[in-house]
Amino acid sequence: MTPPPPIGLLAELTHRCPLRCPYCSNPLALAAADGELTTADWARVFRQAAELGVLQLHLSGGEPAARRDLVELVSHAAGAGLYTNLITSGMMLDAGRLAALAEAGLDHVQLSVQDSEPGSADRIAGFPGGHARKLAFAGLVTQAGLPFTLNAVVHRQNLDHLGEIVALALQLGAKRLEVAHVQYYGWALLNRDHLLPTRDQLDRATVMVEQARSEHRGVLSIDYVVPDYYATEPKACMGGWGRQVMVVNPTGKVLPCHAAESLPGMVFESVLDRDLASIWTSSEAFEMYRGTGWMRGPCQGCVNAERDWGGCRCQAFALTGDATATDPACRLSRDHSLLDVAVQRAAAPAGDFIYRERARVKTSVL
Ligand code: SF4
Ligand code: SF4
User: Fold this and answer.
1) β-bridge partners, 108
2) N or C: fewer beta carbons within 10 Å in the chain?
């Protein structure tokens, strides 16, 4: 059966980024600049995405503004009729370039912050002075009249500052705050002992979010979900494998999620060899875990199978070594206790962060 079209396309334009976040969702092996798709390649991808039925385009990275052709890319995407959301660290855009992006048809900006307090934020990002630049950039976004969302990835080292992060979102004029718990694969898995929050922290944060939601209703909407390591039910990762979203990485490989390359033995096809629609509908990688046919017990036949789609394949592999296993976030998984083991281990971390490798990229405005 032909799957319905994806709603969203996440375009990882580059892996280059001035920051070095220890939970970065980019793979451990970062793509080099000279292997990135060209402007014409991306323009073709955007047209094919719109023809396929994609509505929302998320321009991501790395830092998407490290691409000198970002304005041109936004123009191609808007011309194809896509809603464009720029996911940025805010480190490489000045007022002129932001105005050019708005003029080219940019619809929305999503700015990430590492913490509410500059010293901690800069330490987590591995970049002195970065937080101040982000705040300045947020002011430019507001002045440009672009709607924006503040995104905060939370973990043990900043979760106690969630109240201040909410205050920062209000101060900056964000209409939405996305509080995203770290997902533990790739760089984050390397740093898990430093990042996993404690149960007490999590409980306080959950209460705090509920209070903030009610206090700021109509002014700021707050997205927040319980992290997998304290969950009893898994999340439908990316809305289910090959169901709602596709990812194109900087070199043109098409993935069901940004971490899928962590799964061994899988072959992901490229937009340089095949059009997006046929990769979505019939490539081996997208078919592999689509639907419920691949499931084994206890997922096979479970009443939740078409709600959570068995959870996250990358997390299942990262924790059990078997990508076909039930996501250990599920209480029915025979591996559920691995999450408790990880939480206990994280209580006494050794050493410091392993920072994401610094990509060689100029941090001045391009
Ligand atoms: S290093 Fe940080 S800002 Fe850069 S892409 Fe990774 S998570 Fe985003
Ligand atoms: S057994 Fe599988 S389908 Fe059922 S709730 Fe757990 S992960 Fe979801």
Assistant:
1) 85
2) N
Closest residue (by CA) to atom 2 of ligand 1? 21
List Cα–Cα distances, 90 to 146, 195, 244, 289, in angstroms: 14, 23, 27, 35
pLDDT mean over 18-41: 95
Asked if omega into 234 is within 30° of 0 (cis), the reply is: no
CB-CB contact of 278 with 269 (8 Å): no
Residue 305 CA: nearest ligand 2 atom is: 3
pTM of the model: 0.94
CA 149 – CA 164 distance, rounded (Å): 16
- Distance from the CA of 138 to the center of ligand 1, in angstroms? 17
Q: Return d(Cα 286, Cα 269) in angstroms, integer.
A: 10
The model's pLDDT over 320-330, given as tens digits with 9 standing for 90+, comes to 999 999 999 99
339-343, long-range: CB < 8 A, 24+ apart: 339/228, 339/229, 339/230, 342/184, 342/192, 342/196, 342/229, 343/196, 343/198, 343/199, 343/229, 343/230
Tokens of 323: 């990508």
Instruction: Copy the structure tokens of residue 332.
Output: 């029915």
Give the pLDDT band (50/70/90) at residue 360.
very low
> Residue 88 in contact with residue 112, Cβ under 8 Å?
yes
